[in-house]
Amino acid sequence: MSTQLPQQTEDETTTSEVEKESSPPQAPLTDPLSEIETDTEHDDSHEDEDTYVLKVFRYDPEIAAKQEPRFDDFHVPYHKGMTVLDALMYARDNYDSSLTFRHSCRQAICGSDAMFVNGKQRLCCKTQLSDLEEPVRVEPLPHQDVVKDLVVDMEHFYDQMESVEPYFQTDDLPEGELEEQRQSRQNREKVKMSTRCIWCGACMSSCNVAAGNNDYLGPAAINKAYRFTMDEREGDEMKQERLEIIERENGVWRCQTQFSCTDVCPKDIPLTEHIQELKREAVKNNLKFW
Amino acid sequence: MHEHDVIVVGAGGAGLRAAIAAQEEGADVAIVSKLHPVRSHTGAAEGGINAALREGDSWEDHAYDTMKGSDYLGDAPAIETLAQDSPEEVIQLEHWGMAFSRDDDGRVSQRPFGGLSFPRTTYAGAETGHQLLHTMYEQLVKRGIEVYDEWHVLDLAVTDDERPEDRRCHGVVGYDIQSGSIEGFQARNGVILATGGLGQVYDHTTNAVANTGDGVAMAYRAGAPLEDMEFIQFHPTTLPSTGVLITEGVRGEGGILYNDEGERFMYEHGYANNDGELASRDVVSRAELTEVNEGRGIEDEYVHLDMRHLGEDRITDRLENIIHLSADFEGVNPLEEPMPVKPGQHYAMGGIETDENGETCITGLYAAGECACASVHGSNRLGGNALPELIVFGARAGHHAAGRDLGRAEIPTGKRGDWEPGAVDTPVEPGSVRPSGDAVADGGTAAASTAAQSPTGLVERATEEARTHVDSLLANDDGRNHSEIRDAVQSTMTENVNVFREEESLKQAVEDIRNARRAYQNVGVADQSRTFNTDLLHTIETRNIIDLAEAITLGALARDEFRGAHWRKQYQERDDQSWLKHTLLSWNDGSPELWYKPVILEGESKKYEPKIRSY
């Protein structure tokens, strides 16, 4: 599958095509909504009259005007604390309802809204506009097929995640229905950061190795493997099997320690460190069986 | 058309558990979900899972606390089931590898939570829901359960028998968001709705953008009654600018609430002289708003939640996620400053009426999790009781739908047991704008022409109707945009159907919702693409928001007493004489009908006597 964005150049940028004139939407003669008192303070009374300019990538394979990728400009009124996601939602709800992007929780846990913002993979809901240079350029995650606008095909990412036997396995559960397995606080601490992954795909998109080699497991999947390899509850035999999985041809040894995944991870997971640690474990393990 | 034994709609905690349970029972099961499972809002749950695991605790105490927390509006068979099944479900999660926080002896940690007589809230830092969701999804992958992800369910395929109790659900109609194709899903044994919350009815909510109550609205229009919809939980500690949740665990670990005058108002103004900050959520939310209304709020809007005295080590160990949330979404470092907090919509206690096996009055239609009302939470949910509800009732619904004998349910559904008619005085007619009986044209339930029609024919017909409906929305490309209508509903609900409720405001909301319904008659979809058309998706969701906003408001208007989360200015007492009963609302083909059924206070071996609820 192609892992590249549809071709695009600055020349294709159209400006102010969708900039909103100040005319309100045409109201029918008796507008039922006009009878509802809305909390205008909540909606539009931004004390700060500043606007932010967003340059947003647009593409839709079905719509003639969008089959050639382009950038649209949106001028969004700014308020303190406004995130890139807030700005995209504002643009969609007020200027162009066809503007398309994934989002759900708005609090950096569902992992839906990783995008390429000003040249870096970021989670839009936790990126403050005030931290960015204008115009704010919003593009879909690089190295993945674009479905429409800012939505990319995540199937390859999911396939890699699911290829590392990403589920807990042990043959040694304690006797008794209500007996839990014991796990030391230290061991829980050891795997803690790796369990924070929200499957946003930012790391995979930032990784040069993954960009050049579609079969490479990628940082998120290796981190998932780390989460189980390091979990003492699975036992030594399983750890052995886990190390075999990550040592496969397109496993840990492909990592070139460029740290780009670690740089972009919105959950601060030390991905590169985890990959290196697995390499060390694998070497120790191989020596043991030499 | 797709065919499976069991179809689960939604892939959060309840949906995943239901699917695993159905497969454990040998069923061919598939999940249909508008979000990929790991995107579900279960992942945002922070605090923990109540389960009586330890010596000194018992399921009986958990049940008692829950009944008291419900302000005696929970049904004992559902509450006792929750308390009895929760321990084994929690240990099951541990056996599936969930990364719980641990005590020094290596066992899973538990902490105190509001309204609990024992520290029985099992947790994983302040990210318990995330850990639970991912652990359960891992099990789904392991078992190879099929998921149709980014498929939005448009409607149920239900027979059109006169009485909902005689109807049967044969499947659902799904809309593939990525391709725009609309296809039928036939369920040989049953459909389990696990679509989660409806927080998008309000504009300040901890809920995700996706939480539009789709399953609740769908079941309602298909004839399943909605129960106790007026009971909406407002969580006392949400960040003012975004509604992001700050877990009750902060108060569980010892966090303190202060007003603008630096008073620890929960004690100093006598709201909860025993439990203080750890009183039940409804009590704390009202206290905060009273402080603000009486001029002791900060910036007339919020209060402070201070956890600095807990020390960085303890905070990092048990509440680390809160440091990130407060810094990222409010710009406040809680290690250095108190966090601003105010009440925000958090949870719907009401939902689709089910029994303790998760079954609705429509044969083959189940509901579990937040979209359902068994009822475990009655008029107020205790912190730490939502996650066990997902796994306990998700599992039961899955097992039952796949054929396991769980014994006869004690909770009657539909008008099968005792019930009495109700009435509510509204300024305008609620329900469908179009004449009664035209529910299908209104985007409502798909009914078969004859009850004798084959299940396959029924699903096919429902699919055709959904296609026609979507075509008509797309054809109206210069119609009204859904976001204006949605804003109007959210605005009136937040203004008029909030923590403190007054008769006139509630009536205003009924009128406003009516106007939103009228505006929706001309709703249209500007985006003409079939590919990932979120304009269309949000338009469809907005219809659900309107129906549910109305149901909440009608219940709130009918219930003229103060119980749990429902407070009425003119009726500031709990009225056990008149109101030890559930509010039920039947869509009734577009003319909503209000009725009541009694609360079940008789448990397995004792009766729960309503007492004054103080903390």
TrEMBL record, chain A:
Q: Which domain of life is it from?
A: Archaea
Q: Where is the composition biased (Acidic residues)?
A: 34-49
- Give the species this sequence originates from: Haloquadratum walsbyi (strain DSM 16790 / HBSQ001)
Q: What PROSITE patterns would the database entry show?
A: 4FE4S_FER_2
Among InterPro entries, the record links this protein to: 2Fe-2S_ferredoxin-like_sf (IPR036010), 4Fe4S_Fe-S-bd (IPR017896), Beta-grasp_dom_sf (IPR012675), Helical_ferredxn (IPR009051), SDH/FRD_Iron-Sulfur (IPR050573), Succ_DH/fum_Rdtase_Fe-S (IPR004489), Succ_DH/fum_Rdtase_N (IPR025192)
One GO term in the molecular function aspect is: metal ion binding
Record-given protein name:
Succinate dehydrogenase subunit B
This entry's Enzyme Commission designation comes to: 1.3.5.1
Q: Does the keyword Metal-binding apply?
A: yes
Annotated region described as Disordered, given as residue ranges: 1-49
What single Pfam family name could you report for this chain, choosing any that match?
A: Fer4_8
Q: Which UniProt keywords apply?
A: 2Fe-2S, 4Fe-4S, Iron, Iron-sulfur, Metal-binding, Oxidoreductase
TrEMBL record, chain B:
Q: Name one GO molecular function term.
A: succinate dehydrogenase (quinone) activity
Protein topology in the membrane: Peripheral membrane protein
- List compositional bias (Basic and acidic residues) regions by residue number: 402-419
Q: InterPro entries under this entry?
A: FAD-dep_OxRdtase_2_FAD-bd (IPR003953), FAD/NAD-bd_sf (IPR036188), FRD_SDH_FAD_BS (IPR003952), Fum_R/Succ_DH_flav-like_C_sf (IPR037099), Fum_Rdtase/Succ_DH_flav-like_C (IPR015939), SdhA/FrdA/AprA (IPR030664), Succ_DH/fumarate_Rdtase_cat_sf (IPR027477)
Q: Where is the Fumarate reductase/succinate dehydrogenase flavoprotein-like C-terminal domain?
A: 486-615
Entry keyword set? Electron transport, FAD, Flavoprotein, Membrane, Oxidoreductase, Transport
Gene3D superfamilies membership: FAD/NAD(P)-binding domain, Fumarate reductase/succinate dehydrogenase flavoprotein-like, C-terminal domain, succinate dehydrogenase protein domain, Succinate dehydrogenase/fumarate reductase flavoprotein, catalytic domain
Entry annotated with the keyword Isomerase: no
For this protein, the Enzyme Commission number is: 1.3.5.1
CC cofactor: FAD
- Has keyword Flavoprotein? yes
Which PANTHER family does this UniProt record tie to the protein? SUCCINATE DEHYDROGENASE 2 FLAVOPROTEIN SUBUNIT, SUCCINATE DEHYDROGENASE [UBIQUINONE] FLAVOPROTEIN SUBUNIT, MITOCHONDRIAL
The family note in this entry says: Belongs to the FAD-dependent oxidoreductase 2 family. FRD/SDH subfamily.
Name under which the protein is recorded? succinate dehydrogenase
- Species of origin: Haloquadratum walsbyi (strain DSM 16790 / HBSQ001)
Q: What is the lineage of its organism?
A: Archaea, Methanobacteriati, Methanobacteriota, Stenosarchaea group, Halobacteria
